[in-house]
C-alpha cells in the first residue's frame, strides 16, 4: 500500500529550502534504498528525495545530507523506517479494489470457515498495510462472516508495514469521516464509533475489528519472524516499484508462506507475468498457489 516516491509529487528548486543533495550522497541513498527497500530511484527523483528528506534533517538537527548518509551507514536499522516514511506516499482507502473483498465474502471466507469449524486456524496477511484501511476492511468482512456461521474459529489478520508513522495511525484506528467513502452506511454504523467534542469529524474502528488485527513493523526484504502459514496474503500496490529480481524473490517467499492452494492478492497495476511459476492467475489480480 505504500507507493514509494510517487512520480506525481514535486518539489521546488534544489537548495531553495535547505541543504542540497549532492551527487555522491544521492548515489549512496539510491543504493541504500534499493538494498533495503527494493526500490530503484531514477536520476529524475533527486530533487524529490531532497525535498522529502529535508524534514528529517531538521528533526535530527543534522547540518546536511552527508551527515544523514553517515547516520545510515552507522546504524541503518534505526533510521530505515523513518527514511521509508519520508519518501513514501501512502495511497490507500477502505475497500479499495472491491472485487477482492467480493471474492472473500462470496467464495473464500465461507469455504475457509466451514472447513475450520472443527479446528484449525484462519490467517490473512496484509503486507504493506499502510495506515490500516486494508486490514480493517478485511476484518469487517471476516467479522461478518464469523457472525453468520455462529461458531468460534481461530481467525486473525496480520498487518505489517515499514513506516512507523503509517503503523501509528493503523494502531490508533482513528480516521477522518471523509476517509470512510468506501464504507457502506450500514458498515459505518456497525463498525465505527463516531467521535464527539474535540474528536468531532473523526471515527474509530470498532474494538471487535481491533481484536482481529495484529499490527507489526516489518521490512519485506528482511527476515520474517512468522512461523505459521497464511490462507491469503494481500500485497497490493507495493511491488509495482520493486525491481524484477526483488519481485521474483518476494513472490517465491510468499509462496513459501501460503497454505497449499492459498491466495495472493496484488494491486490493479501489478502482475506476476514472467516472474513466478508458483501461482495461477484466477481472477483480476488474484493468484492461487499451485500446490
From TrEMBL:
Which residues are in the CheR-type methyltransferase domain? 20-291
Q: Which Gene3D superfamilies does the entry mention?
A: Chemotaxis receptor methyltransferase CheR, N-terminal domain, Vaccinia Virus protein VP39
* Residues where S-adenosyl-L-methionine binds: 90, 92, 96, 134, 161, 219-220, 236-237
Which reaction does this enzyme catalyse, per its entry? L-glutamyl-[protein] + S-adenosyl-L-methionine = [protein]-L-glutamate 5-O-methyl ester + S-adenosyl-L-homocysteine
Q: Name one GO molecular function term.
A: protein-glutamate O-methyltransferase activity
Q: What is its EC number?
A: 2.1.1.80
GO biological process: any one? methylation
**Keyword flag Repressor:** no
A Pfam family name for this chain?
A: CheR_N
The broad enzyme category this protein falls into is transferase
The UniProt keywords, alphabetically, are: Methyltransferase, S-adenosyl-L-methionine, Transferase
Reported function: Methylation of the membrane-bound methyl-accepting chemotaxis proteins (MCP) to form gamma-glutamyl methyl ester residues in MCP.
- State the name under which the record lists this protein: Chemotaxis protein methyltransferase
What is the protein's species of origin?
A: Luteibacter yeojuensis
Amino acid at each position: 500500500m505504500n507507493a514509494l516516491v510517487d512520480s506525481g509529487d514535486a518539489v521546488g528548486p534544489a537548495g531553495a529550502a535547505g541543504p542540497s543533495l549532492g551527487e555522491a550522497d544521492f548515489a549512496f541513498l539510491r543504493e541504500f534504498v534499493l538494498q533495503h527497500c527494493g526500490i530503484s530511484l531514477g536520476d529524475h527523483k533527486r530533487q524529490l528525495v531532497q525535498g522529502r528528506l529535508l524534514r528529517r534533517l531538521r528533526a535530527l538537527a543534522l547540518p546536511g545530507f552527508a551527515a544523514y548518509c553517515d547516520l545510515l551507514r552507522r546504524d541503518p536499522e534505526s533510521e530505515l523506517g523513518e527514511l521509508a516514511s519520508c519518501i513514501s506516499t501512502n495511497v490507500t482507502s477502505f475497500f479499495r479494489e472491491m472485487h477482492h473483498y467480493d471474492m472473500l465474502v462470496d467464495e473464500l471466507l465461507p469455504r475457509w470457515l466451514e472447513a475450520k469449524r472443527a479446528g484449525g486456524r484462519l490467517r490473512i496477511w496484509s503486507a504493506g498495510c499502510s495506515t490500516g484501511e486494508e486490514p480493517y476492511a478485511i476484518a469487517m468482512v471476516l467479522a461478518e462472516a464469523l457472525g453468520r456461521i455462529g461458531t468460534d474459529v481461530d481467525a486473525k489478520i496480520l498487518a505489517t508495514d515499514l513506516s512507523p508513522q503509517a503503523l501509528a495511525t493503523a494502531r490508533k484506528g482513528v480516521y477522518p469521516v471523509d476517509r470512510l467513502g468506501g464504507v457502506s452506511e450500514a458498515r459505518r454504523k456497525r463498525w465505527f464509533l463516531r467521535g464527539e467534542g474535540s474528536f468531532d469529524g473523526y471515527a474509530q474502528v470498532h474494538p471487535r475489528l481491533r481484536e482481529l488485527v495484529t499490527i507489526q513493523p516489518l521490512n519485506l526484504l528482511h527476515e520474517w519472524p512468522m512461523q505459521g502459514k497464511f490462507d491469503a496474503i494481500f500485497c497490493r500496490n507495493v511491488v509495482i516499484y520493486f525491481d524484477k529480481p526483488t519481485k521474483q524473490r518476494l513472490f517465491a517467499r510468499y509462496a513459501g508462506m501460503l497454505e497449499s492452494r492459498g491466495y495472493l492478492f496484488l494491486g490493479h497495476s501489478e502482475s506476476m507475468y514472467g516472474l513466478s511459476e508458483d501461482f495461477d492467475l484466477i481472477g483480476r489480480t488474484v493468484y492461487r498457489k499451485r500446490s
